[in-house]
Amino acid sequence: MMRLLIGQTGAPTSVVNASLRGFLEAAADHDVLALRGGPDGLVEGRLTPVTAADVPVVATRHGGSWLGAGRRAVTEEDLDTALDVLAVNGVEGLALIGGNGTMALLHALANRAAATGRELSVVGIPKTVDNDLVGVDHCPGYGSAARYLTKVVPDLARDHAAMSGIEPVRIVETLGRSVGWLALAATWHRDDPAYAPHLVLIPELTFDRAAFLTAVRDALRAHGRAFVVVSEGAASELTDDPFEAVNHTRIILGGVSRALAGLVSTELGVAARGEVLGMVQRSSGALASDVDRAEAAEAGRHAAKLLADRATGLMVGLHRSAGQTGYDPVPLAEVAGRTRPVPPQWRSTNPADLGDFHDWLSPLLGQN
């Protein structure tokens, strides 16, 4: 029997509690502590005993985080304090659920433990709606946020079509500070081909003011309206949002859609609305993908098994082959602090060019 610690850093997703419960189910033969409150809790020693019975199944169908969440720009002193907390509490294996900042924290803890002669196994459980983790085909959390967008954005387009006489241009803003995976998901229109977005802007493509205005003008001429999707991190020069803040420790409030709407109104002389979808994308348990929830739980189970085998320095990876998802581990050194952008073949401002991306996305969305 080992003493294990499970925690989460960064923001929640609608399926993060499924990863927690999956971990606890697979770790039933071990003594498990819960880290409460993210990295602050790790430094401050907020650890409590936990079993799968403490996390009800219903919690896996809701947003938020049973463990609590948070971010912190971790210092060298914090690393030493955290290792002291782990040692005092007899923790032999640590699993953290999170994104690339979390994997960087785990990697730093593992390196610091090795350098100071402490025995500690660390394993990462991937989690981010941004889908920007290196070493995975897709990340738990993304499929549900994507599904939310595929359900609500076509209805926003229908609403826009009805109101286009007084609001010719509508610009809808998704999450995604440095990558466009969610904005691309919002271009999904296979169930509603008449209501496809006319234009999508992602951070991987440099914002071209003149080309943007031309595309909006062309959509107005062709359709009588222009419906645009934009990632919060596209055209970041138009806002004051702190996209380069260390470990995402400053809040991005959203606003590029409104800045673009103002640009359209000024330059083209037509009414335009900027719509910020906000945190509901990552928190909507009601529209979560059943596939995503199952994969999140399985990622948690694999992490517990890796720790039980005293593996260390790894993140659970998700890979697809022949329609099946596998969970081969990936070295944290290949993941920590790195960002996976949208690949070149899917970098387009025209949703009509994204059929291959929609093929890739479709299995992640689950049942209607």
Automatic annotation (TrEMBL):
Pfam families: PFK. Residues 4-306 form the Phosphofructokinase domain. Belongs to the phosphofructokinase type A (PFKA) family. GO terms for molecular function: 6-phosphofructokinase activity. It is an enzyme of class 2 (transferase). Its EC number is 2.7.1.11. Keywords: Cytoplasm, Glycolysis, Kinase, Magnesium, Metal-binding, Transferase. This is 6-phosphofructokinase. PANTHER family: ATP-DEPENDENT 6-PHOSPHOFRUCTOKINASE 3, PHOSPHOFRUCTOKINASE. The keyword Translocase does not apply. Pathway: Carbohydrate degradation; glycolysis; D-glyceraldehyde 3-phosphate and glycerone phosphate from D-glucose: step 3/4. The keyword Flavoprotein does not apply. Its cofactor is Mg(2+). InterPro entries: ATP_PFK, Phosphofructokinase_dom, PKF_sf. It comes from Micromonospora fulviviridis.
